[in-house]
Write a structure and sequence with these properties.
438 residues, mainly alpha, 78% helix, globular
Length: 438
């Protein structure tokens, strides 16, 4: 049984990394082959795949799609630029890196990684030319913050999907994620950047254009509140849940509002007013932005659905139970096991999202026997999925080309930064495990 699982993972790696098959199609092909090898009847296999995809997307699609809409509006309204300018002015030249870290973390919560990356580049290079500082030294801390938000924090696709798969609390995952993210960003960002001051670009050409901002920008307060609204809603409802008796009417409403789809829906309604209508945007323009935002993440949604098909194959075939018995004999902590599997798949495939979802498909049926916090398992796998980005990761090439680096310097800066994020993230997970769940 374990050999079939390993062969399936190798086939998935072969399809995506070598044959360049679309990850969604690769998941379907591997799920079908794995299901047949594990003894699922051909007549039942289609129903298994449909159930896996439906169960996965049914609980996650609202969060991801509305998150894409909110992120698009935060970027296009100029709110992200307002936040960046405010943080740079607040921290000044002396503490510029810390300002960029805070900016990256704040805009990284609502913005998907690729959007945040492209949005950050003009900000970074404007400061590079203004203060005559090395580009990698200035830019890497902000990229570290964006990467941590992408791997650790809902509503980003992989963490949000993992929360659903492991039936974890979104609020608890976000709370632990922020607690781990802060020291992780500090170490992988400003502190690590101190060792990169001598890295120079191999050319001086510019490959970016300034962001085209609307003539009317939102206020500073509006920008910060709109970007951080999901975190604020989860925090408020969590506090209400602790202070109010469960039988009180307000507790029921707080529980309803704390549900991730409701948090994102409320956020979308509010930002449509604060960053949309109040800034003079027509409803037609807002609908166009939302449509574009959903198109940007359409393939991610399909990949998440494909991972659900593989997970359901393992459950319906009974393989998950046999694998559970094997893993329970291993002398490895479950959180470390989740990190190791995700890190291995990440290095093999390059995609953090695919690494996280594949690992979750393997381990989700085993959670009852692990006796660990589902929120910490989400973060352990999220940390592992960021391990050692290299030539098979599009993010590696984006960083290399935008900063005009050699391969050696890209490994020395970007790849090592991602590895630090991954390892420190795991350490943070294990510290919380030791302190709270002894």
């Amino acid at each position: 049984m374990l050999l079939i699982l390993l062969a399936s993972l190798l086939l998935l790696i072969l399809c995506i990394a070598v044959l360049k098959v679309n990850p969604f199609i690769a998941f379907l092909i591997v799920s079908i082959i794995t299901g047949l090898l594990l003894g699922i009847k051909p007549s039942d296999l289609a129903a298994t795949l449909q159930k896996g995809i439906g169960d996965m997307l049914g609980s996650i699609i609202i969060i991801i799609c509305i998150g894409a809409m909110v992120g698009k509006l935060v970027a296009e309204s100029g709110a992200a630029q307002v936040i960046a300018n405010t943080m740079v002015r607040l921290f000044g030249k002396r503490y510029l890196l810390w300002g960029l870290v805070c900016t990256g973390f704040i805009i990284g919560i609502p913005l998907f990684y690729n959007v945040g990356f492209v949005l950050a580049i003009p900000i970074i290079f404007a400061l590079v030319y203004q203060y005559k500082l090395p580009a990698v030294y200035v830019g890497l801390p902000m990229m570290a913050a964006l990467s941590v938000a992408h791997g650790f924090l809902p509503p980003h696709p992989s963490p949000a999907a993992l929360v659903t798969i492991f039936h974890a609390s979104m609020g608890q995952t976000l709370l632990y994620g922020i607690a781990i993210a802060i020291p992780t960003i500090i170490i992988a960002g400003p502190l690590f950047a101190q060792t990169l001051k001598k890295i120079q670009p191999i050319s001086n050409s510019q490959t970016f254009t300034p962001n085209e901002l609307p003539s009317r920008l939102p206020s500073v307060a509006n920008s910060f509140i709109s970007a951080l609204l999901p975190v604020g809603l989860l925090a408020i409802t969590s506090i209400v849940g602790l202070l109010v008796p469960p039988t009180a009417p307000i507790a029921s409403y707080a529980k309803l509002i704390s549900e991730p789809p409701m948090v994102m829906l409320i956020t979308l309604i509010v930002v449509s007013i604060t960053l949309g209508k109040s800034q003079g945007h027509s409803m037609g323009h807002l609908l166009h932005l939302f449509e574009t935002g959903v198109k940007d993440i359409a393939m991610i949604v399909l990949i998440i659905g494909g991972s659900g098909a593989l997970k359901q194959v393992l459950i319906d075939s009974g393989a998950s139970q046999q694998i559970a018995q094997i893993f329970t004999t291993w002398q490895v902590h479950p959180l470390v096991l989740g990190w190791c599997i995700a890190a291995t798949i990440r290095v093999s495939l390059g995609s953090a999202t695919v690494a996280g979802l594949t690992t979750a498909g393997i381990l989700a049926p085993l959670m009852a026997s692990f006796h660990v916090s589902p929120a910490l398992m989400v973060l352990a796998i999220g940390s592992g999925s960021l391990f050692f980005s290299h030539v098979n990761d599009p993010g590696f090439w984006m960083f290399k080309e935008y900063f005009h680096l050699s391969l050696k310097d890209t490994f020395r800066s970007w790849s090592l930064m991602e590895t630090i994020v991954s390892v420190v993230g795991l350490i943070g997970v294990m510290v919380i495990q030791a302190c709270i769940y002894r």
